[in-house]
Amino acid sequence: MLRIILFIFLILINLDATTIKDSLFGSKFISYDGITFEPFENSNYKNIQTNKDITFKININKKILNNEIFYIKIFCKPDIFVSSNLKYRLNDDYPLIKIDKDINEPLILVFKANNNLPKFYIKIYNELEYNYILKNEKIFFGISYGILLCAFLYNLVFYLSNKKRAFLYYSILQLLLFFLLLIMYKEMFIFSCITTVNEKIIDSSISILINFILFFSILFNLEFLDTKKYTPSIHKALKVLALIIIINSFMILFSQSLNIFEYISLHYVILILIFSAFVVLKRGNKTAIIYLIGWALLFSIVFFSETNFFEMNDLYLLHIGIPLESLIFSLALGLKIRQIELEKQQNETLLINQSKLASMGEMIGNIAHQWRQPLTHLSYIIMNIKAAYDNNKLNNEYISKKSEEANRQIEFMSQTIDDFRNFFKTSKLQSDFSLIECIKENIRLLNESFKVLDIEIKLFYKKDFQINTYKGQLSQVIFNLLNNAKDEFIKNKTINPKIVIELSKTDKYFIIKIIDNAGGIEEKILKKIFEPYFTTKESGLGIGLYMSKIIIEKNMKGKLEVVNRKDGAEFIISLLTSK
Fold first, then answer.
1. Which phi and psi (to 5°) does residue 102 adopt?
2. What pLDDT does 196 receive?
3. What pLDDT digit, counting tens, does each position of 359-374 carry?
4. CA atoms within 13 A on the CB side of 456
5. Which of 149, 227, 388, 508 has the lowest tally of Cβ within 10 angstroms?
6. Dihedrals φ, ψ of 95, to 5°?
């Protein structure tokens, strides 16, 4: 497929395409007295010092007028246009002349000199352009500019919300394209109406603008297609091309006569970007499909505009093609956002599962601690019953007493299993539950392991609160914070380790504070502890606190913060009182 496209392209670039409009005008003449004419190309018009009228005569190729009708619009300062031998009317204050098969004479235009060669610009329109675009030109251009400005704002907002550089580059690109089209639209007015303007300066400004458009197109290509991952060699080549474009911009700025794109056509650069998209698509990046369509459209528009291959005003072509390309790329970026969101959701689900798996080792240890004492107690009950039987002291009262003791231990063990099972239970539905009971369940899970380390845990609250949210996920967060505090006590060999849990309520939030005396968090890492895969533990995964923050802030629309206190750290969970 790629070989076929390249083959077609090589054929197209060798076509010397000329439109019918290009053949409308023949030889051109100039007269300084209205009588004697000389070829315009040979006239020494640069040294004109006269206030007399100057006459231009342009021969018309009658052969192409048998089946065609054209309209020519003359852009110039209104006070310098004197007359025309052909009937004309004003369109936006500029003379508009109809050229058809009934014309049997050359076009003669008379202008005032004012000591300078009169500046004017002739634009040729075919009948289709006249009927459907020229009459509504301002609306047509306004829609084009509106699309580009909307695309600029649309992508800028997305960049500010997700910080993806592809959106920033494309946003800047749309703004530059807007200015390019606006300048191209106004260029004819600039050249024809401002007599003091330096045309080289205007040409250089447009060239630099085009260079910046190419530069940001390459940056957008690198980011959107992720060429560094999919095509490292093309990625390097495109970076070199971007550097060349920047150097070329400086060359134009300091030496207006130097511009590599006078020798290399712009559509070659676009073709390179299309080629990179093909390679990326072939290597598995499906979002490159729409990207490819957009660049193929833009390549076609630029190619037709540069080569006159298509019978349409190049200004109109660009005002149609570039906004269409903007709409297509906006769709592609929208799909890119969707893809990013899906990947993010998948990564978060994976991280949640990893976080739970990382906690399982701790859980197994806690189950062992929780069950060790009741199993020992059950063992003593069995030994006591056997001893009573051996000594003939076994009776109904003794059996009843020991049975109650055994049942209490078994009930405790059963409750432990329920607590652990609830911790690992995942539910996509929110439910009403007691905050105090949720906190107490987590304390029970860690109670025995805390006892072994002599960790004192205190719970302060004035009243219980009912909340509607994801109980299992909140339990996971509280467990992670309590377990992290335990690890810090062990790491820092804290004397008299203590955890205080405070529950309170404001107008907007339920507040859960978990405060320890483990020495606090180093200031240089305080802002990093919620980042994924950041850990200070030798065997840690660095996902516990990250997932805790995701759960609280994304899933529950609350806040999870940390501050250092005098002798430790304070984690603050804020949960909305109502949603």
1. -80, -5
2. 45
3. 555 566 666 656 766 7
4. 8
5. 508
6. -65, 135
The CA angle 277-282-285, to the nearest 5 degrees, is: 70
Residue type for 106, please? P
Q: d(Cα 561, Cα 548) in Å, to the nearest integer?
A: 11
How does DSSP classify residue 553? Answer: I
Q: Please name the amino acid found at residue 234.
A: I
Nearest one of 521, 505, 501 to 574, comparing CA atoms: 505
Tell me how crowded residue 284 is: count the other CB atoms within 10 A of its CB. Answer: 9
d(CA 56, CA 29): 6
> Which amino acid is residue 431, in one-letter code?
S
Residue type at position 507 = D
How much of the chain is helix, strand and coil, in % rounded to 5? 60, 15, 25
pLDDT above 50: residue 399: yes
pLDDT in tens, 122-132: 888 888 888 88
Mean pLDDT (whole number) for 245-251: 85
Handedness of CA 487, 488, 490, 494 (dihedral sign): negative
The pLDDT of 353-364, averaged and rounded, is 59
Residue 63 CA to residue 101 CA, distance in Å, equals: 9
Radius of gyration of the chain (CA): 40
CATH C-level class of 427-579: alpha beta
Of the candidate ranges 32-36, 143-147, 243-247, 360-364, the one whose mean pLDDT is the lowest: 360-364
Residue where the block lists tokens 């069995």: 382
Q: Where are the alpha helices (DSSP H) in 427-526?
A: 435-452, 471-492
pTM over 0.85: no
Residues 6+ apart with CB under 8 A from 48: 32, 54, 113, 115, 116, 117
pLDDT at site 307:
58
Tokens of 257: 């006569």
Mean pLDDT score across all residues of the chain: 78
pLDDT tens per residue across span 426-458: 556 788 889 998 898 888 877 777 887 889 999
Q: Whole-angstrom Cα distance, residue 312 to residue 126?
A: 8
Angstrom distance (rounded) from CA 359 to CA 301: 58
Number of residues that this document lists for the chain: 579
For the stretch 197-227, pLDDT in tens is 455 666 777 888 888 988 998 998 898 888 8
Taking the domain 21-132, which CATH number applies?
Answer: 2.60.40
Q: Work out the widest C-alpha separation in the chain, in whole angstroms.
A: 148
